[in-house]
Specification:
Layout (H helix, E strand, L loop, with lengths): L1 E4 L4 H5 L8 E6 H10 L1 E7 L4 E8 L2 E8 L6 E3 L3 E5 L3 E7 L1 H5 L9 E10 L5 E9 L2 E8 L4 E6 L2 E7 L15 E7 L2 E7 L17 E5 L4 E7 L2 E7 L2 E6 L4 E6 L4 E7 L3 E8 L2 E7 L11 H5 L5 E7 L5 E9 L6 E6 L4 E3 L4 H5 L6 H5 L6 H18 L3 H14 L4 H13 L3 H14 L4 H13 L3 H14 L4 H13 L3 H8 L23 E9 L4 H7 L3 H5 L2 E7 L5 H4 L7 E3 L11 E4 L3 H4 L22 H10 L5 E6 L9 H4 L7 H4 L4 E5 L8 H5 L6 E3 L7 H9 L3 E5 L2 H8 L4 E5 L20 E5 L6 H13 L4
Parallel strand pairs: 9-27, 28-29, 28-31, 29-30, 32-33, 32-35, 33-34, 35-36, 36-37
Antiparallel strand pairs: 1-2, 2-25, 3-4, 3-26, 4-5, 6-7, 7-8, 8-9, 10-11, 11-12, 12-13, 14-15, 15-16, 16-17, 18-19, 19-20, 20-21, 22-23, 23-24, 24-25
């Protein structure tokens, strides 16, 4: 899903630099998530627009921060420094943490790269660059494309040629082979790409569409010929990768066959790549109408011309995120990852900051006194804490925040982050104290109010949570996350009138990806003869719970298209009112007139506790194709015993998954009840617990090999007398089928189960068993075992 973004950097908005076109971009929400989850930012060069671009996560958007350089191309970047090749110079910028701490807004930047050296090379058309290692220390290698050679720097010379292809007979300003891509291996230059195997000035141009080569520097062997404008070779994860730009592809060299294996085909001219984990960050450029780009395979197949950065999973070749530029930026040259740096600044030229930033030898630094040391050291600890928090190192982050506060007790950002991090570790009493101190110092600190409300909600102190959420939205009326948190807490309290309305704010938080369509959202008004598209948004359990609204919707609409995950289709195919059921993907905009999220239907129908459509069953068991499963289950039955299904673990990715799930061994008091025969309905990795964790005297029939989708699970449930499950999609399915369901709930259970009651207004056949204290599954299963001895069919 894409969301349009305005220029996010003041510099980009104020300095359009040599162009009247806006520096606008759009991106998938997953692009922000990738940057946040990995704790990284990107540096991208575009010589066409004359910009060095920093891509950094800022809330739910990507901040594209532009700095102007003259024809920026090759980049060699890491946490400590950046080398940038420009029209006739190489800039070297160093990260000065103390300068970052002085940037505004305070505490936001975690790195600041300041120019330290500019080396004049002359116009040599510098292409790719990389830091290498040598006995003399880190060495910068770069491709001198005009002279067809690989070079390093020396203070006495413009450049020092270190290697040239064996077919190049002389250095020549006229670019004989268009040497362009450089790959390092074991800290040394090892592979290069060129657009032609020619020794004539400009000779590569005549066969650029298929004359590209990949060369091993160490042996001077040409590993591949016949490539279409290859760029950006990289040695990564034991493979030699290359972008075949003329085809828009990412590929690697298969050593056995000596051929390229294409991993991904992308919608643009691929140039510039950086790997990080299982991801490849790839630059895409538009194909210009020029002699250089004419005749390429890409020009014959590509209908849309795209410029941006694409994120590809190298294991599957799937695109998981992208950022696309519009208007001014049309070509990308280099893409580099800044690991462990979330929000850097790059200064092209700032006399004020450069004049007060110093890099000294350790001996001199040890004897240097600077003003306001406590404040600067405090901010350094704060920045370090933020970085550690981003890496999931919460205990270390807390230590940094405490050091910051020892030096500057009034530094509210550190105290706020301390409270949030303590909450992340579920140290709620300490978190509550820290956040209250923030609010005492600044009553209008909306974020602290929201976070304190969340801390109270996790302890099931719901009245207190509501009060602080309301305070947060009073201070900041458009605070979407606080509105959404308030909505879910009101629903948990049974205040559906206010709760559904507040819950609709979820679409404006960074947690939810909106369905993008040019149509208006449906408001519940009758529209006979019109088509409504209803889409799912969260987990399978939510979908099963709210599918009950479809017949009500059908009374208002001419036709319903329902979009859901494929594994749910078997149990929804016979739902009354669905005319067309599809999986997520491209849907023509003329196929429907309006749309709505399934979980917004209670809001549209103004559902109250006494008006829930709770007639069961509202789902049917899909028996077609499942006769062998049903027959097999009937053969397993011991007719004198209750037939009981169990599920003990939900999705590990659920926000409360750790608390909602239990260990299979927690079920032992139930599994030792003698009047029942037990069946495991658990699927996924935890299904193996049956064979691994149970003592020999406890017998449970493992159904997981026979459960391919929810249709199979429904058919199995139909053969049982009772299902005992923790809060998972299976318990919703049992309730929707009108079968007896016992749901085992953690202390702070999900909103839909309300509080302090043992029945559910959503499922008449369901009984709830609740933890009396956090983590106390023993009491829950002791109570369930006692109840099972008295259960009758």
């Amino acid at each position: 899903m894409m969301s349009s973004q305005p220029p996010t950097s003041p510099a980009s908005a104020a300095n359009p630099a040599n162009s009247d076109l806006p520096l606008r971009s759009v991106h998938t929400n997953t692009f922000v998530q990738v940057l946040n989850q990995l704790g990284i930012s990107l540096v991208v060069s575009t010589y066409q627009a004359g910009k060095l671009i920093v891509m950094r996560a800022d809330g739910d958007a990507v901040n594209t921060h532009f700095r102007q350089f003259q024809k920026p191309m090759g980049i060699a970047a890491n946490r400590d420094r950046i080398a940038l090749g420009t029209g006739a110079t190489i800039w070297e910028l160093h990260n000065i943490p103390n300068t970052a701490a002085r940037l505004q807004p305070a505490g936001k930047h975690d790195a600041c790269y300041i120019p330290r050296q500019i080396h004049v090379t002359g116009d040599i058309d510098i292409h790719e660059m990389a830091w290498g290692s040598s006995e003399q220390g880190n060495e910068l290698w770069f491709l001198n494309t005009r002279f067809s050679c690989l070079c390093t720097l020396d203070k006495q010379y413009s450049f020092v040629p270190r290697w040239k292809p064996s077919f190049i007979s002389a250095y020549d300003l006229r670019d004989r082979c268009h040497l362009n891509g450089l790959a390092m291996r074991d800290g040394k230059p090892r592979y290069v790409t060129a657009l032609g195997e020619t020794d004539d000035p400009g000779g590569w141009r005549s066969n650029k569409a298929s004359g590209g080569i990949l060369v091993d520097i160490e042996t001077n062997e040409i590993l591949l010929r016949g490539l279409s404008m290859p760029h950006s070779p990289r040695w990564y994860d034991g493979k030699l990768w290359v972008l075949e730009s003329g085809k828009g592809s990412l590929a690697y060299l298969d050593n056995n066959s000596g051929t390229l294996v294409t991993v991904a085909q992308l919608p643009g001219f691929t140039r510039g790549i950086e790997f990080y984990g299982n991801l490849a960050f790839i630059g895409l450029s538009q194909i210009r109408e020029s002699a250089v780009f004419s005749g390429l395979p890409l020009t014959q197949s590509l209908t849309e011309r795209i410029c941006g950065v694409w994120v590809v999973d190298i294991r599957s070749g799937e695109t998981i995120a992208f950022l696309k530029f519009e208007d001014a930026v049309q070509e990308i040259f280099a893409v580099s990852v800044l690991p462990g740096i979330r929000f850097p600044e790059i200064l092209d030229w700032s006399p004020e900051l450069m004049g007060t930033s110093y890099v000294l030898p350790d001996e001199a630094l040890a004897n240097t006194v600077t003003p306001s040391d406590d404040w600067e050291f405090a901010e350094t600890h704060f920045a370090e804490g933020n970085e550690l928090h981003g890496q999931g190192k919460f205990e270390e982050a807390i230590a940094c925040y405490r050091k910051c506060l020892e030096l500057q007790p009034t530094y509210l950002p550190a105290r706020y982050n301390l409270g949030v991090t303590l909450g992340d570790l579920e140290r709620y009493a300490e978190a509550e104290m820290a956040l209250k101190q923030v609010i005492d110092a600044e009553a209008r600190h909306a974020d602290a109010c929201n976070s304190l409300g969340f801390v109270y909600s996790k302890q099931r102190k719901l009245e207190e949570a509501i009060a602080y959420y309301e305070q947060a939205v009073k201070v900041r009326p458009d605070f979407a996350k606080a509105h959404h948190n308030l909505g879910m807490t009101l629903l948990q309290m049974g205040d559906y009138q206010r709760g559904w309305t507040e819950a609709e704010w979820r679409w404006q938080t960074d947690t939810f990806t909106p369905f993008n369509a040019p149509h208006p959202r449906w408001d519940g008004s009758p529209m006979p003869g019109k088509t409504l598209l209803i889409h799912t948004e969260q987990g399978a359990g939510d979908t099963i719970q709210f599918i009950r609204y479809i017949p009500l919707v059908a009374e208002q609409c001419g036709k319903i298209i329902f979009v859901c995950p494929p594994e749910l289709i078997p149990i929804f195919e016979e739902v009354e009112g669905i005319d067309d059921i599809r999986t997520a993907g491209e849907i023509s905009s003329d196929a429907f007139d309006t749309y709505i999220a399934l979980m917004s239907l209670p809001h549209v129908f103004q559902t109250r506790l006494d008006s829930i459509p709770n007639q069961v069953p509202y789902l049917k068991v899909p028996t077609a194709g499942r006769s062998s499963l049903i027959t097999w289950l009937q053969e397993q039955k011991q007719t004198d015993k209750l037939q009981v299904g169990i599920v003990w673990a939900g999705s590990p990715t659920h926000s409360n998954g750790r608390h909602r799930s239990c260990a299979l061994t927690d079920f032992l008091p139930v599994l030792r009840v003698s009047n029942a025969q037990f069946y495991s309905l658990q699927v996924g990795d935890r299904a193996n617990d049956v064979s691994l964790l149970l003592p020999p005297e406890v017998q449970v029939v493992d159904l997981s090999p026979r459960l391919g989708n929810y249709g199979d699970t429904a058919a199995a449930i139909e053969q049982l007398d009772l299902v005992i499950s923790v809060d998972t999609s299976v318990t919703h399915l049992v309730g929707a089928l009108g079968k007896p369901a016992w749901t085992m709930l953690c202390y702070n259970s999900d909103w839909r189960w309300l509080v302090d009651q043992d029945n559910s207004p959503w499922y008449p056949t369901m009984r709830l068993f609740r933890q009396p204290q956090p983590g106390d599954w023993a009491s829950v299963f002791s109570q369930a075992a006692q109840a099972l001895t008295q259960f009758r069919k």
